[in-house]
Amino acid sequence: MLTYIARRLLLLPVVLFGVSIFIFGVMSFLSPYELVSTYIKSPEELKNQSLDALVEKYGLNDPWHLRYIRWLGNVLHGNLGYSESANMYVLDAIKQRFPASLELALFAVVPVVFGGIWLGVVSAVHHNRLLDHATRIFAIIGWSLPSFVAGILALMFFYGYLGWFPPGRLSAWAHEIIASGGFRQYTGMNTIDAILNWNWPIFWDAVRHLVAPTITLAWLWWAFILRITRSSMLDVLNKDYVTTARAKGLPERLVINRHAKRNAMIPVTTVAGLMVLGLLGGMAITETVFDYKGIGLLTVQGAQQLDYTLVLGTALFYGVLLVIGNLVVDVLYAIIDPRVRLE
Amino acid sequence: MVTKKLLRNPISMLGLIILLGFVILAVFAPWIAPTPERYKDEPYRIPRYGYRATPTPPSSEHPFGLTQGQHDIFYGIVWGTRTAFRVGILVAGISCLIGVVVGSISAYVGGRVDEFLMRVVDIFMSFPFIIAAIVVTSVFGKSLTNVMVALIFFSWMNYARLIRGNILQVKQEEYVMAARASGVSHFKIILRHLLPNSIFPVLIQASMSLGSVVLTVAGLSFLGLGAEPGYADWGQMLSFARNWLMGTPGNPLAYWYVVAYPAAAIVLFVLAWNLIGDAFRDILDPRIQA
Fold it and tell me: The domain that contains B276 carries what CATH number?
């Protein structure tokens, strides 16, 4: 298994190289003057020097391979430029916003993985019966209700009509407590910090703001995982080893849990990689709908104001996240499927 | 056989009927929602009946009401159907074409070229499309064309993989060997022998992807990164609705019409494609029938 993981690790730089080439390629359509903002190390630089001097200083008129190497060096040192729209360094903006998105993703992934797999198994076991048809309709609706429509409807009903789940990340009073200094921010994730501070009102407030975006983000992937689990389970249930297990008199529960389910999980793990990709993309829309101040909303607002410095920086960050996410999925895959380890 | 099964299955039948409804809307748009005289040159601009920010409820004159800035919702929905089909067909068609070209070269030439092209595919596939589209629009500016270009750029890879796999299978057939032995040119072998025998699943996939393409573009327009303001586009109409989710005191659903109609149009359109696609998969996948 170690060689397998090592081989996957070797692929990382290749993918990162590709992502960096894409972003650098897009950047090369901007003029040197427009690019200055992605290089400067502090906003004061703009006040004291002319643009021409800055273009000269950062070598923005050099041939492209020199610029690429210099840009890469900059990025590796964590200098992603200064964002006008966020009024801070891109790296700082990412650091500030990322915990919020991570929190949302964690809340979304847990019900998706456990609920979706469980329902998929159940509907395969009840193949072509009422429950199976019900989950099928549920899944089709899930696929057809895009997150921005689902989010808007959820906001209109749960906030506008019932007044239960407000948009944003926290209520104003909770913001004040957090900013007051008595509340220590360990992780930046409000629910976890609230538990660590033993502050239950803030915990509940954070959860109240998380419910609607979580459902919106998870809904589609729930339907997806459910369908994949179902069809892979149906496939496995026809296999000889399942028949053997039944023939030797094992109780049905053990046949499903020990023999069928474990093997049915293999294709599910492969689509988990897709899910990581989808959740990261879905974050942009969900956070925008609910005004949830995470990295997705940061990117979208940056793009709306054509703040390419910010967008390019966050895009690079997304690239790194994805590569890590895929690596985790690959390792899981190797743990679940012994055949991968032997290759 | 496939068509017969598709017509007999009630689920796919429902999908086909909804889709037919949208085709009729798109084709007869100028008669269903005639363009007012002063907008004759730009039929895709939604006509405005005033400049007030607050939406106006449905009336006999404007059956679906007026959204913020007094854009006619009915007109926007009807002409938005044309936008949806145009975007879907162009993006699915062009990215399918690129995918087929790259995939067939990769499979036919093989060796290092194949290895290189497939790594390129991997890299393209490992980036979230929405983020890529956001990057492209923030650098090149917001417009429907830029969104479409970005989408094409990031959706040809699936087709390339699919056709590559199919051609690798067909390549081993004897009639291909025979064509090669008798000195037929490479180009002709790909065009006459390999593609006709491997392109069918790719075409199905491309037509099935129409729904998701329309969805993605609507999503980007919703984020304010797609169509220019006032253009007949469902996603943008829904983004207008975002300011009016709260209603008035005592009547929380006062502005339901600015949300309901664009949302219904998007959901029905995508639902139709998914219903057909779901039935298609069941018909074509012998594993599930067992």
Answer: 1.10.3720.10
Write the ipTM: 0.77
Size of interface A-B (CB pairs under 8 A): 142
C-alpha angle A97-A101-A102 in degrees, rounded to nearest 5:
110
pLDDT over 70 (residue A316): yes
pLDDT for residue A21 is more than 90: no
Which residues form the domain of A226? 97-308
Range ranked top by mean pLDDT from A175-179, B184-188, B286-290? B184-188
Is residue A16 domain-resident? no
Contacts (Cβ under 8 Å, ≥6 apart) of B71: B46, B47, B48, B230, B237, B240
- A294 — alpha (psi -120 to 50), left (phi > 0) or beta? beta
Residues in B closer than 8 angstroms to A311, CB to CB, are 134-135, 138-139
B24-80 pLDDT, tens per residue? 988 887 888 777 777 777 887 888 877 877 777 777 777 787 777 788 888 888 888
Q: What is the pTM of this model?
A: 0.80
Residues of A in contact with B126 (CB under 8 A): 15, 18-19, 277, 319, 322-323, 326
Residue B90 lies in a domain: yes
Residue B288 has pLDDT above 70, yes or no: no
How do residues B216-264 score in pLDDT, each as one tens digit? Answer: 888 888 888 888 888 888 888 888 887 777 777 777 777 888 888 888 9
Q: Do A281 and B129 touch (CB under 8 A)?
A: yes
User: Average of pLDDT values for B119-139?
Assistant: 79
A323·B126 Cβ contact <8 A:
yes
Query: A148 vs B135: CB contact, 8 Å cut-off?
Result: no
DSSP for A266-334, written as a single string: HHHHHHHHHHHHHHHHHHHHHHHHHT--SHHHHHHHHHHTT-HHHHHHHHHHHHHHHHHHHHHHHHHHH
Give the DSSP letter of residue B243.
G
Nearest CA in chain A to B256: A156
Task: Please report whether residue B182 resides in a domain.
Answer: yes
Specify the number of domains making up chain A.
1
What total of structural domains would you count in chain B? Answer: 1
How much is the mean pLDDT over chain B? Answer: 82
Backbone φ and ψ for B139, nearest 5 degrees, come out as -90, -40
Residue A121, φ and ψ in degrees, nearest 5: -65, -45
Give whole-number Cα distances, B13 to A91, A134, A203, in Å.
52, 19, 49
- Asked if A19 and B290 come within 8 Å (Cβ–Cβ), the reply is no
Q: Which tens digits make up the pLDDT trace of A61-114?
A: 777 777 778 778 888 887 777 777 778 888 888 888 888 888 888 888 887 778
Q: What is the CA radius of gyration of chain B?
A: 23
Closest residue in A to B271 (Cα) is A144
Verify whether the Cβ–Cβ distance B141 to A14 is below 8 Å.
no
For residue B158, being part of any structural domain is answered with: yes
DSSP, res B245? S
What's the pLDDT at A317?
Answer: 85
- Answer yes or no: is B97 within a domain: yes
Q: Which residues in chain A are closer than 8 Å to B287, comparing Cβ atoms?
A: 231, 234-235
Q: What is the CATH number of the domain that holds A301?
A: 1.10.3720.10
Give Dmax (Cα) for chain B.
Answer: 82
Q: In chain B, what is the straight-line distance between the N-terminal and C-terminal CA atoms, in Å? A: 18
